[in-house]
Amino acid sequence: xxxxxxxxxxxxxxxxxxxxxxxxxxxxxxxxxxxxxxxxxxxxxxxxxxxxxxxxxxxxxxxxxxxxxxxxxxxxxxxxxxxxxxxxxxxxxxxxxxxxxxxxxxxxxxxxxxxxxxxxxxxxxxxxxxxxxxxxxxxxxxxxxxxxxxxxxxxxxxxxxxxxxxxxxxxxxxxxxxxxxxxxxxxxxxxxxxxxxxxxxxxxxxxxxxxxxxxxxxxxxxxxxxxxxxxxxxxxxxxxxxxxxxxxxxxxxxxxxxxxxxxxxxxxxxxxxxxxxxxxxxxxxxxxxxxxxxxxxxxxxxxxxxxxxxxxxxxxxxxxxxxxxxxxxxxxxxxxx
Amino acid sequence: xxxxxxxxxxxxxxxxxxxxxxxxxxxxxxxxxxxxxxxxxxxxxxxxxxxxxxxxxxxxxxxxxxxxxxxxxxxxxxxxxxxxxxxxxxxxxxxxxxxxxxxxxxxxxxxxxxxxxxxxxxxxxxxxxxxxxxxxxxxxxxxxxxxxxxxxxxxxxxxxxxxxxxxxxxxxxxxxxxxxxxxxxxxxxxxxxxxxxxxxxxxxxxxxxxxxxxxxxxxxxxxxxxxxxxxxxxxxxxxxxxxxxxxxxxxxxxxxxxxxxxxxxxxxxxxxxxxxxxxxxxxxxxxxxxxxxxxxxxxxxxxxxxxxxxxxxxxxxxxxxxxxxxxxxxxxxxxxxxxxxxxxxxxxxxxxxxxxxxxxxxxxxxxxxxxxxxxxxxxxxxxxxxxxxxxxxxxxxxxxxxxxxxxxxxxxxxxxxxxxxxxxxxxxxxxxxxxxxxxxxxxxxxxxxxxxxxxxxxxxxxxxxxxxxxxxxxxxxxxxxxxxxxxxxxxxxxxxxxxxxxxxxxxxxxxxxxxxxxxxxxxxxxxxx
Lengths: 337, 529
Prior knowledge:
Chain B: It is found in: Cell membrane. The complex is a heterodimer of chains A (337) and B (529). Chain A is an alpha/beta fold and 337 residues long. Chain A is 43% helix and 16% strand. In chain A, helix 6 (163-191) packs parallel to helix 13 (324-333).
């Protein structure tokens, strides 16, 4: 009975499903925005003749979708922001390891999965932005120091619900452990001038308006805001530069990609990711959003380069993923909304 | 009965998928949420429900009364214009409100610079969320209550006055109780939408059940913990629905004939001025100011962002909303009829279940629907592969059918509320009279019921149309490749905090959503004279 039904359904379905898959194509599920990836995919098609089909959504639904589709997924590539999401995708068995000399060369070791299931494609640096009228750069030093009572009523933060601050806290856990990190987060919360903001831009605007003196943001938000209002009294500070421990260096995260476990065109998928890491594509990939290229041979956009050089934190970004749930719980306990 | 069962089953599939999450309990995550997150958010959610419930009722009922029953300058314009906020997604109102009223906004900046004045109440607060949600959602109550007042209010009030009640007491003792099923239907819609809202709460950083669901899913990587929270939410809504239905189960309504516009109450000059000011202020802050802000932002980006793809986005939006609204209204009508033919508690339960989708956070619902569809797809593909050597990855998923079914599940409540209230108002006497004149069932429906239901059907269609236009998570999850809509465009921009660039597609949604709202009022006005 059941098999008759299934048979009937499949006959109908086969009649409906047209099969025009002639030219080679790669299908991408992307949590990176359409406006940031479409120009690149268009360029790839022009260069290679390979069509790139893609659909965008948030990473949670995309991964749920991949999981539900199982081995019949149309997706070849999963492209997303934040190492935490990439780590999670690999954890759930949605990605496959790939061997690629090109990617090993183009992507520094701390910005890719040790098991080669995903690779960073652009670097996002999370740093401090301060009010130039109220803070001297000499007063600033580390993320940890923002918990110091001298910043009472002077700190603005974005909500803890966004993955960026979760990753930052996860990085702290690798050096200081949970208890000490929780104390630090409590210190941040105690120093808040006002309740946390929904996005980085709002937090910077509050700093500029004098509601508080310093905040933590991803640099490209700073770039975008200054593009629009270049006269704001804001500047970037690179923290943790002189530390010698694991928390040394500016906290960085990636947007990145991997080949799906059940890709129908894994070779095409790998080629697309390799191309995205190439010198040719890296500039556009990073510049379109004022991020940093992941490929060390490529220099950032002029505007980005003008913010100065900094030492990156070299902990593998994977750790931000594996520690994310811990970080979130810790932030809940510390009362960071 | 069978039909109602089918519709309820359709809705129950994603709910069942969600509830099945209890199979894999993640104790530590739930324990954490219970200890550190739930206490806050239960309080927040209760406050929000209470505040928005009061807010939308007060705004909706008072404005409906004014435009339906009173005569004052500008009434004709307010009559339809007060519906316009419906076309504006709540998170847009929220963002504009914060943009204008927060510490960094122009108002506070001006007060600081000019008067050295600080310490205004924070907009990013419980009161702020309630205010914004009430302003965004009052049209649900307004629209439905206005129809009720317009068709029966005047006569009821006259009857009350002839019995010696003053106008005020007549309003509270007669007209308001008579309109209660409609007000309740509108309020339930507003509250369910509030419960499911994620965007506005994210902007205010206000934690509710829904934000906790997303936290469990996105931040703690536990879809099952998220689903478990979602099922608690659904139980919560069921209890509320049952409570609401019980409380009006014993009330019976008879029609009192058609209202007459000529009998509107003429307000004294002072009261007329106050009415004008009140309606004007609500309209200004709920619609005019946010839309002006959107237009200003759009002006800055229109040159670089507006390309010919926008026609495609707009066309997809209108097409999907149109088909979706037609489906919602048709099924809602059939479901309401099923209840009329076979009244009883079993049927009432099926109807309640069938309309639960509206309170479900969109993304959770989308996943709950996608999992069984993908499963079915996999079965078919494997069978097709075994017997015909079929090579493909998609049969049903990635088609418009899945998308439209998902819209139906999500928005059936929006259609069902007005249609069912409308149908309740057609008394049995009407049916009997028609039957005595030899009218069959089909004739009864076509010649008697449909004309009487026209206003309700239009209300349902307009609500569903506008809601589908604004809908995001289901559209994102189930759209076929290339089927981007205006809402998808808004998502792309807002997810990176680019509000200026999100203004253009938002404004397009508002404009496209105004069309059915105006159509609705125009037809409604003609119907009521």
